[in-house]
Amino acid sequence: MYYFAYGNNMNPDIIKKQGVEFLDRKKGVIRGYRIIFNKKAKDNEYSYANIEQTGNNEDIVEGILYEFDSCEMREIDRHEGFPTQYNKYKIKVETQEGNINAYVYIAQPEWIDNNLKPPKFYIENMLKGKDLISPKYINFIESVETHKE
């Protein structure tokens, strides 16, 4: 089973702290989507990453594709707030080995607020996946304006 992480879970240590054992992790890209930081946190003070479909194949989201046993999906669901905060979809993810269908989470409309910003620690966690993302995408993540604490 495959899960595409584009936010906090790009950091493999976060996945491990959730008690999830992954078999493999590799670079993945989804086309026709863009990343936005508009998924409300539970306290409504800041946001987390979310993706939205653009329909333009020039738009991409880079992330980490995790492979794990199917029993691990329940733990990911629980930590991601599925089914109350996120919907879960299967999306085609491009890898060096070819295309793989993977689960991805997209925020439910009632959990979206375009006026919030992510906290600095969240961006730092995303950057812990930089071993598998491009320098251009790293620069993009580093340029995201964060919540003032």
Describe the structure.
With 149 residues, the protein is of the alpha+beta class. The protein has one domain (2-141): Hypothetical upf0131 protein ytfp (Roll). Helix content is 20%, strand content 37%. It contains 4 helices and 7 strands. It has helices at 12-17, 73-80, 120-127, 135-142, and strands at 2-5, 24-31, 33-40, 47-53, 60-67, 86-95, 98-107. The strands form 3 sheets. It has a 3-stranded antiparallel β-sheet with strand order 1-5-2, with no helix packed on it. β3 (33-40) and β4 (47-53) form a beta hairpin. The radius of gyration is 14 Å and the shape is globular. The termini are far apart.
- CATH homologous superfamily (4th level) name: Gamma-glutamyl cyclotransferase-like
Order of helices and strands: EHEEEEHEEHH
Shape by Cα distribution = globular
Compute the CA-based radius of gyration. 14 Å
CATH architecture: Roll
Percent helix? 10-25%
CATH topology grouping: Hypothetical upf0131 protein ytfp
How many structural domains in the coordinates? 1
Low-confidence stretches: none
From the N-terminal CA to the C-terminal CA, the straight-line distance is 38 Å
Q: What is the number of beta strands? A: 7
According to CATH, what is the class?
Alpha Beta
Helix run count = 4
Order of strands across the biggest sheet? 1-5-2
Structural class: alpha+beta
